[in-house]
Design brief:
heterodimer; A: alpha/beta; Spore Coat Polysaccharide Biosynthesis Protein SpsA, Chain A; 7-stranded mixed β-sheet; 38% helix; B: alpha/beta
């Protein structure tokens, strides 16, 4: 099973980036997987900093791409959330295209603020294989550490799903599609369920999970 | 892994009982498991009918008990009290897991095999398969309609809610299943909620147009 760890990154997550890349390096020692980072920070500077982190932790086999996207215009919380979710969705679409254009079997979607045990990917693969599952999502806890969080923070997604469905919601093309970016990920999951997807949501398998925040 | 299929039954589910027992017989051929039915219908008559169904489908290795409950008791409490009897059976015998399979769910004969495989793959305490809301076949339903639960959880946690003893405990019987999941996770256990692996799942329904929807249809709003 050829796996791509695909992660959107942004300078706002610099508070956890170094720890996360150290975690990536350890996990890849146990479970080989390629790494694609899509930086959607403003400008190209942050990529250079990330490259240094990679060097520090011996990560050489990786690819980093930049996505320049208008940002910083939001004022209200809703507008800022919309910007963030649009950036993430568009970055994930680049990752999806990479999976499709290469011979990857699975996307390991792993948010850059989640610190997990180094056998986490192995465990998820085991579960995926046991039920011939197409999507396996692990609870990654909301940033308040109390509420469950089944977004794509820690998720394995098989290629067959990515071949059918993109991460960009095409507003207005489906009566159920939300008219905002904030709900795009939830809608993606709902669409998979409607499609009869073999789908699992897991709690407690990977333990501990540290969902880092900088408040 | 020694498994008990443990199911509360009631005369109101007679519309599905015969088909379900036929399904049980076929599943047991593929995956050996004992069967324990707890009838919480009013009176003893319905048990006789169920015994007739079992005989018809060649089910001989089973146990059927009756639980007489006040007629005004609501379905969620009836089910919880019936499950508590099943739990005691698991604990007092050498069962490794409980296959909780509601008597209105028709599933493929390899279902139990699939759930066991998944439980072993992640060493999960519970594997819970979506069984769709009975009257809303496109709505996910994650109650214990089709679940495999390890003995360890049942040794610790009861289905009888002692209201007020824990600040997180729900205040009614309706959320008893969700409460068990919370307890398992608080205790460091793991759970997987699955859908699409067992296919098809038929959640049989005898309601007529205009009948009220089942309670679970409103759970999101309640919560």
């Amino acid at each position: 099973m050829k796996i791509l760890i695909g992660t959107p990154i942004h300078i706002s997550k610099d508070y956890c980036m170094e720890r996360w890349l150290e975690n990536v390096a350890k996990l890849r020692q146990q479970t080989p997987a390629d790494l694609l980072l899509v930086d959607n920070s403003p400008g190209l500077d942050y990529m250079e900093k990330v490259k240094k982190y990679c060097e520090k932790y011996g990560i050489t086999n990786y690819r980093i791409e930049h996505l320049e996207i208008p940002q910083g215009k939001g004022i209200s919380k809703e507008e800022i959330d919309e910007e963030i979710h649009e950036r993430v969705a568009k970055s994930r679409e680049i990752i999806r295209q990479k999976i499709l254009s290469s011979n990857y079997d699975v996307l390991f979607s792993w948010a850059c603020d989640q610190i997990i045990s180094k056998n986490a990917l192995d465990k998820l693969i085991n579960v995926m294989n046991s039920g011939d599952l197409w999507v396996v999502i692990h609870n990654s806890w909301a940033e308040n550490d109390i509420d469950f969080n089944f977004d794509f923070g820690i998720a394995l997604i098989k290629r067959n799903i990515l071949e059918k469905y993109g991460f960009l919601p095409r507003f207005g093309t489906d009566p159920d599609v939300p008219n905002n970016w904030y709900c795009a990920e939830r809608w993606y999951e709902e669409r998979l369920k409607k499609d009869g997807c073999k789908y699992a949501e897991i709690c407690g398998l990977i333990n501990p999970i540290y969902h880092l925040h900088n408040r | 892994m020694k498994i008990l299929i443990g199911t509360p039954i009631h005369i109101c589910k007679d519309y599905s009982m015969e088909r379900w027992l036929q399904n049980v017989a076929k599943l047991q051929l593929q995956t050996p498991a004992d069967l324990f039915l707890v009838d919480n219908s009013p009176g003893l008559n319905y048990m006789e009918k169920v015994k007739g169904y079992c005989a018809k489908y060649g089910i001989t290795n089973y146990k059927l008990e009756h639980l007489e409950l006040p007629p005004e008791q609501k379905v969620d409490e009836r089910v919880a009290r019936s499950r508590e009897i099943i739990r005691k059976e698991i604990i007092s015998k050498d069962y490794d897991a409980w296959f909780t399979w509601e008597c209105d769910q028709i599933i493929p004969t390899n279902s139990l095999d699939e759930l066991i495989k998944m439980m072993n793959a992640g060493n999960f305490m519970m594997v819970n398969h979506n069984n769709w809301i009975r009257q809303l076949p496109d709505r996910v339903n994650t109650d214990f309609g089709i679940s495999l639960i390890k003995r360890e959880c049942l040794e610790k946690y009861s289905f009888l809610l002692e209201f007020g003893t824990d600040p997180d405990m729900p205040h009614n019987w309706k959320f008893g299943e969700a409460w068990l999941k919370v307890q398992i996770l608080r205790d460091g256990g793991s759970i997987v909620e699955v859908q699409g692996v067992l296919n098809p799942v038929y959640h049989l329904d005898n309601s007529r147009p205009g009948d009220p929807l089942p309670a679970e249809a409103y759970w999101d709003e309640d919560e």
